[in-house]
Automatic annotation (TrEMBL):
Endoribonuclease YicC-like C-terminal domain: residues covered: 176-292
UniProt keyword Nuclease present: yes
Family per similarity comment: Belongs to the YicC/YloC family.
Residues of the signal peptide: none
Names of required cofactors: a divalent metal cation
The species this protein was found in: Hallerella succinigenes
Annotated Endoribonuclease YicC-like N-terminal domain residues: 3-156
Domain of life: Bacteria
Keyword field: Endonuclease, Hydrolase, Nuclease
Coiled coil region boundaries: none
The protein's name in its UniProt record: Uncharacterized protein (TIGR00255 family)
Length: 292
């Protein structure tokens, strides 16, 4: 399964008893699936049904679903009430009153103002409306998924290019590394030889100590591990969707290696390359947050 972006948009239009209706679905990145519905009062009873329909198509993301009517709140005069909703609200009120020893009764005005109590369509019209809106929503969701797949393909290509660029930076560091070691040893030995004359230290021993410390500053292991992380990241991308957590873990390891390189290198040139690596890792991390 391909990488899928969480950013997308889908739209569909249809006629409902002579009225133009529009269904729009937008999605952006989110750790979970969160759905918000913006419906005309006429269609408020469909909110749960439409949210369940969205869940059939999407696994993650912040989703905004909007249904609009061409001429505004058509049919906003109620045609009846929901017995089920009224009985449910009154039962809850009675339970709360009994449990907590509260006084008072809900008034008619309060009951009528509660969500989903008033019905704005006949039962026959509701069935027709539900069927048409669900069908329209499905078409809009298919368009959104298609866009998310296209965005996912573009995102995958960009991530691959950025990882390949990090490989090039690591190769540049490898080229600079021998020069760095030689320069560091020369400077270190010069400083120590000055102290040798003052303290009477053994020059051979000083040179040996310089070599030992230079070995501790070796960054070949960090470069090798970083390149290994790059390969793992690319292979994980090929596995497709639902790899977000694994990619995040790999990026954490990359960031750790980049920090170690910057700390150990003792070279302005290599430190600049390490900073480029850290910037690239952060950019990739932000992009992977948009993968479903």
């Amino acid at each position: 399964m391909a990488i899928i972006s969480m950013t997308g948009y889908g739209k569909d239009e249809f006629k409902l008893r002579g009225t133009q209706c529009t269904v729009e679905v937008r999605s952006v990145n989110n750790r979970f699936l969160e759905i918000s519905c913006h419906l005309p009062k006429t269609f408020s009873y469909l909110e749960f049904t439409l949210k369940e329909e969205v869940k059939k198509f999407l696994a993650r993301g912040s989703v905004n679903l909007t249904v609009t009517l061409g001429d505004g709140e058509e049919g906003s005069i109620p045609t009846g009430y929901s017995t089920e909703a009224v009985e449910s609200y009154l039962k809850i009120a009675k339970d709360i009153k009994t449990t907590y020893g509260l006084n008072g009764e809900p008034t008619l005005e309060q009951v009528l103002s509660l969500p989903n109590v008033l019905v704005y369509e006949s039962e026959e019209n509701q069935k027709e409306t539900e069927g048409k809106i669900k069908a329209s929503l499905d078409r809009a969701l298919k368009a959104l998924v298609q866009m998310r797949e296209k965005e996912g393909l573009n995102l995958k290509k960009d991530l691959e290019a950025r990882v390949q660029e990090m490989d090039k930076i690591l190769d540049e560091i490898k080229v600079l590394d021998p020069e760095r070691i030689v320069e560091w040893k020369q400077k270190f030995e010069e400083r120590l030889h000055k102290l040798v004359g003052e303290a009477g230290l053994d020059p051979i021993r000083v040179t040996q100590e310089a070599s030992i410390i230079a070995d501790r500053l070796d960054i070949n292991e960090e470069i090798t591990r970083f390149k290994s992380h790059n390969k793992l990241f690319l292979s994980t991308l090929e596995q497709g969707a639902n790899q977000g957590k694994k990619l995040t873990f790999i990026l954490q390891e990359m960031s750790r290696e980049a920090n170690t390189l910057a700390t150990k290198c003792q070279s302005a040139k290599i430190a600049a390359h390490a900073i480029r690596l850290k910037d690239s890792v952060e950019t990739i991390r932000e992009q992977t947050m948009n993968i479903e």
